[in-house]
Amino acid sequence: xxxxxxxxxxxxxxxxxxxxxxxTFPDSTVDAVIRAPGDYPEGKQGDVxxxxxxxxxxxxxxLNGGPAIxxxxxxxxxxxxxxxxxxxxxWNAIVGNGGQESxxxxxxxxxxxxxxxxxxxxxxxxxxGGGQAKRAFDAMMTMRKIDIAAIEAARRG
Length: 157
Prior knowledge:
Elements: E1 6-10, H1 14-24, E2 29-35, E3 48-55, E4 58-64, E5 76-81, H2 84-96, E6 100-101, E7 106-108, E8 114-119, H3 120-128, H4 130-140, H5 148-156
Parallel strand pairs: 1-4, 5-8
Antiparallel strand pairs: 2-3, 3-4, 6-7, 7-8
Helix pairs in contact: 3-4, 4-5
């Protein structure tokens, strides 16, 4: 296990979520499934308690902690994309698998975990500052899934 690992709380579907992430994103794996050695308030001995997984190279733990804690946008995975095809693929995988769209490149998977599907071109435009950053920002604010061509056009003015 890595020294620093992100722990993501799930009601009961940590393994399903980890397997979805591993199938969707490169450099992602399900590394271990740990079962409860005894009964606990939200489950029984033998239930999946913890799943060790990697998402796009980042080590994570999925904890099946029960329904008490809900996800919100204060935590999200940000995935940098290189082109519209990659942006569409990740967005459609998350939203099309029971997730939901939000704004400015944000969406949630069916487990309620927030994702930012962020084209590198958008990050570059915002980092450039000045008028091109403002135009790219204004264009982004009208979008759900990021449209790279529209960001490029806005950036150029």
